[in-house]
Write a structure and sequence with these properties.
This protein is of the alpha+beta class. The chain is built from 15 helices and 24 strands. Strands 3-4-6-5-7 form a 5-stranded mixed beta sheet, sandwiched between helices. It has 3 domains: about 5-65 and about 110-335, no CATH class; about 70-105 and about 340-425, Immunoglobulin-like; about 430-545, TonB (TolA/TonB C-terminal domain, 2-Layer Sandwich). The protein has helices at about 5-35, 40-65, 70-75, 85-90, 110-140, 145-160, 200-215, 215-230, 235-260, 265-275, 295-305, 315-335, 335-340, 475, 510-520; strands spanning about 65-70, 100, 140-145, 165-170, 180, 185-190, 290, 335, 345-350, 360-365, 370-375, 380-385, 390-400, 405-410, 420-425, 430-440, 460, 465, 480-490, 495-500, 520-525, 525-530, 530-535, 535-545. It is rod-shaped.
Length: about 550
């Protein structure tokens, strides 16, 4: 398991996710400002959508088809450091296509991930403690059986179209502030002696807390807390969580005010509750309390402003939903340059003698994205490609005088560097001889003419003595014609060795005449880097009869 590679890949993915959620939160903040004169419910919907988007963005990025820009990746790669000569030389004895993970792209990646994990765990533990505290308070409470409370609870829940059963509990403490928590089984916790409250205060508290239940604010607040735990280092994550809570309180205030309760009476009751009751049980709890002192002044200013729009618009929610989908899906599918760049692809090219081969052409082709990258080896035989996008590639190396090298299975992953050592073989020499005679013959297919590959440090063989094959009389009389394909090895002294007929369906007389002639050919010595070598040769001899 390549732990550094996995760590670097995870860090790159995290950085890309941070950039994307930053865009989401920034857009949400801008839209919220534009909706400043709209209802608090509309702004809450915007912030809740942004929070949910921050949670699902990493998942969507993993499952959606990749939409990347190779051009942008190239531009981003300009600042990436090029591999040094020392690094290239250190790869000389590496096995072909080995992963180089000795020097991770991000030396502090492990420490950054560990630091993030500590912060995330701390906030998750804090959330868990708060939830546990709310559960403990509810377990220590007793059911509120007052007939007036139960009657008003049923009436207000019916007006808000709440179908789920709502538990109404009375806390053991007389100073506990009313708050709501739970989704499938929502609970409203009241202070002791709440049965002594006036009907107006009772309706205000129930209307506010049941509005939270009808809107599903508790579940959205939990999502906001989880988002803040994941992105605890990001200021916009804290701002989004606070905005979700603040706008949910104001949205519930609007529901209370639209139910017929006067703004002055509502503000007076909230102020009296904030003075007499304590927020201590809910300070680290995600429960939704009616009279939290945080932003209480702003809530008073809003509820006493008669010009504000207090009704939620389905049209605005539909618009925000469509806009969020149109922003979220492309944003999740796009691959930022840091996600596409695989790292360095380097290597060294050698010939059959083990010497390096400069000026060889290296072509890297990505068939999926129809992109082609080209480079060439330098004086020490090394080549490099900087910041190739992750993908499946085909590598081709060409050098005159050598056989073309091809590797169709080069896979580059995000954040890794690879090295490929290429060993080129000497190109096969070829020649074609036409042997013609007069006579009536049978038709036969002639092989295409091949040419000798020249170039580089290979000084190819040249024919010094060439004996023309004679058309056998027996074959000519029988009207036989055809092609003889010979394979031979030219020795270091230029003499053909181990002559062999490649095609077995040839006439024996034609084959014998070809071998007798070619065995008398003489070549100049083939030199590789100044040293004589043996090379393969393919010889095609066409026997044809003219009418």
């Amino acid at each position: 398991m390549n732990t550094p590679l996995m760590t670097n890949t995870g860090l790159i993915f995290a950085l890309a996710s941070i950039v994307k959620v930053t865009i989401v939160w920034a857009v949400a903040a801008l839209v919220a400002v534009c909706l400043k004169k709209s209802s608090a419910a509309s702004r809450h919907f915007v912030w809740a959508t942004a929070v949910l988007a921050s949670l699902v963005l990493p998942f969507l990025t993993s499952v959606l088809p990749e939409w990347k820009s190779t051009t942008v990746a190239r531009a981003a790669a300009i600042l990436a450091p090029a591999p040094s000569a020392t690094t290239a030389q250190s790869l000389e004895f590496a096995s072909p296509m080995s992963i180089n993970a000795a020097t991770p792209a991000f030396p502090i990646a492990t420490w950054l991930i560990a630091l993030w994990a500590l912060g995330a765990i701390a906030l998750v533990v804090r959330l868990f403690v708060g939830l546990s505290r709310a559960v403990a308070l509810s377990q220590a409470a007793r059911a509120m059986r007052d007939a007036d409370w139960q009657r008003d609870l049923a009436a207000i829940a019916n007006s808000l179209q709440i179908r789920r059963p709502v538990r109404l509990l009375e806390s053991a403490s007389s100073a506990a502030i009313p708050f709501t928590f739970g989704f499938w089984r929502p609970t409203i916790l009241l202070p002791s002696r709440a049965s002594d409250w006036s009907q107006e205060r009772r309706c205000i508290v129930l209307s506010h807390e049941l509005a939270h239940i009808a809107r599903g604010d508790w579940l959205l607040q939990i999502c906001a807390e989880l988002s803040r735990a994941i992105y605890w280092f990001h200021p916009l994550a804290w701002n989004a969580a606070a905005a979700v809570r603040h706008e949910s309180e104001r949205a519930c205030d609007d529901i209370v005010l639209t139910s017929g309760i006067a703004a002055e009476d509502y503000a007076a009751e909230l102020l009296d509750l904030a003075r007499k009751l304590t927020n201590a049980p809910t300070r680290i709890c995600p429960a939704l309390a009616i009279a939290r002192t945080t932003n209480l002044e702003r809530r008073f200013a809003a509820m006493l402003n008669p010009s504000l729009d207090r009704r939620s618009s389905r049209r605005s929610k539909l618009f925000v939903s469509i806009f969020a989908i149109c922003l979220l899906l492309p944003l999740a599918a796009v691959r930022l340059p840091a996600q596409n760049v695989a790292g360095n692809f380097t290597g060294t090219i050698y010939d059959a003698s083990g010497a390096v081969v400069p000026n060889a052409t290296v072509i890297v082709t990505d068939a999926k994205n129809k992109s082609i990258e080209m480079s060439s080896s330098v004086a020490d035989g090394s080549f490099s490609f900087k910041a190739l996008p992750a993908g499946e590639y085909t590598v081709k190396v060409m050098k005159p005088g050598f056989e073309a090298y091809r590797d169709p299975d080069l896979a580059l992953k995000v954040g890794e560097s690879r090295t490929l050592d290429v060993h080129l073989t000497i190109g096969t020499l070829s020649d074609t001889v036409e042997v013609q005679a007069t006579g009536r013959g049978q038709s036969g297919a002639a092989a295409p003419t091949k040419r000798i590959k020249l170039g580089g440090e290979v000084e190819a063989s040249k024919i010094i003595t060439k004996v023309q094959p004679l058309y056998p009389e027996a074959a000519k009389s029988a009207g036989v014609q055809g092609t003889v394909n010979l394979h031979a090895v030219i020795g270091m002294n230029g003499v053909p060795l181990s002559l062999q007929v490649v095609n077995t369906d040839v006439n024996p007389d034609l084959a014998r005449a070809s071998i007798e002639a070619v065995s008398k050919w003489r070549y100049s010595t083939t030199l590789l880097n100044g040293q004589p070598i043996e090379v393969d040769t393919n010889i095609t001899i066409n026997f044809t009869l003219n009418p």
